[in-house]
Amino acid sequence: MKIDAISVFPEMFDSLNHSLIGKAIDNQLIEFQALNPREFTTDVHKTVDDSPYGGGAGMVMKPEPLGQALDKLVDDRTVVIFPSPAGKLFDQATATKLSNKKHLVFVCGRYEGIDQRVIDYSATKAETLELSIGDYVINGGEMASVVMIEAISRLIPGVIGNSESLVEESHQDGLVEYPSYTKPASWNGLDVPEVLLSGNHAEIAKWRRQQQVERTEKNRPDLI
Ligand code: 6GU
Q1: pLDDT tens digit string along 157-189?
Q2: Is the CB of 138 under 6 A from ligand 1?
Q3: Which atom of ligand 1 is nearest to the CA of 87?
């Protein structure tokens, strides 16, 4: 899969070069590039933002540099993603859908947002989504993009060694994960649940499922 990000802070994507996603980039399972829209400005200050029409606080990202960056990257098979707290919620189902695409472009806003015409223009060229990572506000689309890229990339075959570890995990089956334990069997007066030491795989599977249901009911009743 090819993934591009358009951002005035391309260094914020450096975290993708570590761990399993970093390895997938090294192995060319994923090709990632960050493009700075300042490259498409023509004034000495390399201006990418301006005050909002109609007044109000903050600055809005100008359409021309982002539009030119899109022109450079997007074709009709691309999916363009605008991370935004005003977008639809990005969830595991969205991650799964996007993991089957050939090319994703993340367009990162800073300041108060992006001129709406950039999003409308993108939609005339390619499938275009506005996606939020949750009900809180962060300062820009970069870290939200990193979160989405990690959630999507790990579903690409070969990125995670053991495909079972994908299936078993939280949310893939609509429940949160069961608790995990390792050695020692007793620590600080706290014991590993007996059943996990029993070697009875049917009982272990049953206990884990029960734990998943209990934890989901307690922590995430909205999933039930
Ligand atoms: Cl995608 N961007 C920003 N700035 N804040 C968010 C978000 C995205 N998702 C939740 N909060």
Answers
A1: 999 987 667 665 666 678 999 999 999 999 999
A2: yes
A3: 1
